[in-house]
Amino acid sequence: MADEVPAANAEFFDPEAESGGRLITVMASDTGNMNYILNNDAAVAAFWDLANHSLAERNWERLDEFQPMLAESWTVSEDQQTYRIKLRKGILWHDFTDPVTGKEWKNVEVKAQDFAFFLQVIQDEKVDAAPLRGYLSGIQEIRVLNDYEFEVEWKTPYFMAKEITLGLMPLPRHLYHAYEGPFDGTRFNEDHERNRMIVGCGPYQFESWEKGKFVRFKRFEKYFGRRLGIMPPIRDIVFELIQHPSTRLQALVSQDVDEVNLTPEQWISNTGSAPFGENGYLRKIETPSSVYNYIGLNLRNPLFQDKKVRVALSSLVNRERILKDVYYGLAKPVSGPLFTESPYYDHSVEPYAFDVEKARALLREAGWSDSDGDGILDKNGVPFRFTVIYPGANTTYQKMLPILKEDMAKAGIQLDILSLEWSVILDRVDSRKFDAVVLGWTSPIMPDPYQLWHSDSADLPSSSNYISFSNPEADQLIEEIRTCFDEEKRMELYHKFHRLIHEEEPYLFLF
Fold first, then answer.
1. Rounded to whole angstroms, how far apart are CA atoms 307 and 335?
2. Residue whose C-alpha is closest to residue 297's, from 173, 389, 225
3. Helices (H), 34-129
4. φ, ψ for residue 442, nearest 5 deg
5. Going by C-beta distance under 8 Å and a sequence separation of 6 or more, which residues neighbour residue 463?
6. Contacts of residue 131, Cβ cutoff 8 Å, sequence gap at least 6
7. 478, 454, 459, 4: which is closest to 230 by C-alpha?
8. pTM
9. Partners of 151 in the beta sheet?
10. Residue 3 contacts residue 218 (beta carbons within 8 Å)
11. Taking the chain, what is the end-to-end CA distance rounded to the nearest angstrom?
12. Is-contact 49 198, C-beta < 8 A?
């Protein structure tokens, strides 16, 4: 295969890198299962990224350029609705033993049928895959032409069709449909033994998961990237579960782990010791993030259904103080759900300023007053009291929320704070059993707002639109964005959408 098409980003791999060794990193919370189709968890997404590849990848330096990975080549029809994909030959699935049947699988090649199976699973209404189903809803079908060629047909023109098509991953039929008869979506959801593992075709092979302790991967020595110069040098990667940030930092200094993410306080106050010094064995690296955090309001709760109330709540968030006292200046306030470094983020839309008097006035307009003089606003006999839940291991939120509680009280709102385990947070969010929750999303450079904000998923269990946001104008803008191929016009639509979300403030956008 000397003339094989080069792999994406091969120029960034060092052919002289020493092979071997083990990287021990950390995860802050455990997860429910290892099946990313069922589990929209950032940690599981990271695991799948290690173990899998998509058809193509963006060049790390030239982000507008897609380069071949599992695909050898692709062509696009004139109407931009049909993509013909040609796969590389010789890509192998990871070897594994089926935990249910005990059958050993070795040297199974990735075929076009595995991509068709992926879409079949996502489109099955019985499968708990609401977030991915919405993301891929524009695909009409995947037609298998032969073992190495298939076509992806879109229902209508869609500006992100290329990105999503080339981002498709295969799914191992021999793992998830290892039984006679038609595919069973309910069985897929409840296949707990198989959902405790990952079988991919990427550089790292899932090895083991001990709940509450670690997840281990080992380099897949039959990885097709070896012949293309993209074999990673590190042999083993271990994710140790360490929930508390101070314990993670202590493990780093003790050399029990090799890398951690620092909190803002740790970055400023806890990295002045000798190990971080000029001759030390640790170093800090500042990296940009496309994650924004927010307080999501459950719009099924009558408290939050008036946008005047939501804007009032946002006006009670003292972002300037939180930025200074909690984030130590290492964050950027945001006013909407788009990546701040993306051209689609409208910088003319500023976050709501901290203004208690404005908040009080808006709440009066919405019919809230302290009728019984107890210091808490009420309306029709109902006090303005709600609970915000947050992941207990997040010390940044631990420091931020008491500030918010104090400032809410200035306007007559009683805010209760409840720390929960990550798994409980996910259960509460999926079942809509919460008032408000502090979470974060990763926003890509060019996002499709459909998954988070379109009303189609407002009532779907386990969807990303878990706050049940529904707005006809937002729906129209999202649909226009999806079919707009004119870059300038699409930017205008994004900016309109940004302004609309800011005016509605279904999230209290933070940093």
1. 15
2. 389
3. 42-51, 112-123
4. -90, 125
5. 130, 131, 134, 457
6. 40, 451, 462, 463, 464
7. 4
8. 0.84
9. 84, 143
10. no
11. 48
12. no
CA distance readout (Å), 289 to 244, 251, 293, 496: 21, 24, 11, 24
Query: What is residue 264's predicted lDDT score, i.e. its pLDDT?
Result: 92
Q: So what's the pLDDT on residue 2?
A: 52
Please say if the pLDDT value at position 414 is more than 60: yes
Alpha-carbon distance of 44 to 217, in angstroms, equals: 13
Please give the Cα distance from 133 to 438 (Å, whole number).
Answer: 25
> Are the CB atoms for 443 and 471 separated by under 8 Å?
no
Q: Provide the 8-state DSSP code for 60.
A: S
Q: How far apart are CA 449 and CA 463, in angstroms?
A: 13
**Looking at residue 92, what DSSP letter applies?**
B
* Mean pLDDT confidence for 308-325: 98
* Distance separating alpha carbons of residues 445 and 56, to the nearest angstrom: 17
Q: Is the pLDDT of residue 1 over 80?
A: no
> Whole-angstrom Cα distance, residue 324 to residue 332?
11
Q: How confident is the model at residue 89 (pLDDT cuts 50, 70, 90)?
A: very high
Q: How far apart are CA 436 and CA 317, in angstroms?
A: 14
DSSP 207-259: EEEETTTEEEEEE-TT-GGGGGT---S--EEEEEE--SHHHHHHHHHTTSSS-
Q: What pLDDT was estimated at residue 131?
A: 84
What pLDDT does 130 receive?
86
- Order of strands, sheet of 71-76, starting from the edge strand that comes earlier in the sequence: 71-76, 82-87, 149-154, 139-146
Q: Is the per-residue pLDDT at 403 higher than 80?
A: yes
Q: CA torsion angle for 337, 340, 342, 346 (degrees, to 10)?
A: 70
121, 127 contact by CB (below 8 A) = yes
Tokens of 233: 């040098």
Which two three-digit tokens encode residue 200? 């991919």
Q: What is the DSSP letter of 348?
A: T
Gap between the Cα atoms of 214 and 8, Å rounded: 30
Comparing C-alpha atoms, which of 269, 254, 262, 264 is closest to residue 284? 262
State the chain's mean pLDDT as an integer: 95
DSSP code at position 68: E
Query: How would you label 114-134 residue by residue, b for 16+ Cβ within 10 Å and e otherwise?
Result: bbbbbbbbbbbeebbbbbbbb
- Whether the predicted pLDDT of 477 surpasses 90: yes
Left if phi > 0, otherwise alpha if psi is -120 to 50, otherwise beta: which for 485?
alpha
Label residue 64 by pLDDT band (50, 70, 90): confident
CA distance 143 to 64: 27
**CA nearest neighbour of 182 among 126, 109, 248, 98:** 126
Q: How far apart are CA 390 and CA 434, in angstroms?
A: 11
Q: What percent of the chain has pLDDT over 70?
A: 100
Contact 209, 93 (CB under 8 A): no
